[in-house]
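Hi everyone,

Forwarding the result from last night's run.
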Amino acid sequence: MRRRPHGLSPPPRPPLLERVRYEGAYPTLERADEAVHRVLAALGRQLVGDERVDLAARLPVEAALVLTAQVPAVTPLTGWEFVKDLARRTGSTPATTRWKVGAVLAAVSQLAGPELLDRIINQLPSGYALLFGRAELHQPRRRTAPF
């Protein structure tokens, strides 16, 4: 084990990981980092356009790379389908996955800010507002092509 020279403090902890560790009650930053990677990869498959670019710009570089490395899905998933799909991909239960998603997206919503978060929620199908820690009081407006 390498010793740190006397008087030097440990490297700073990334704020996103600290927030996720706190929100998700993860025992280590490594567990929080795993949750961040899995949830942001799944979100990257759902989010497109300016909202995807703007969110990536507000995330730490490593998190932004995870988000933008994903190819967006042809058919977006509802919030509940998003949780079930991530649970299936990670071999976890939907309840555990819902906890993980909530912890990560609560931290992401803080970085995004209210205006961008509104745009993100309006772009996605129903059910995402709750995942981001907001009440979903109405159906999100769906963008449709003019007739």
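The chain is about 60% helix and 0% strand.

Cheers,
N.
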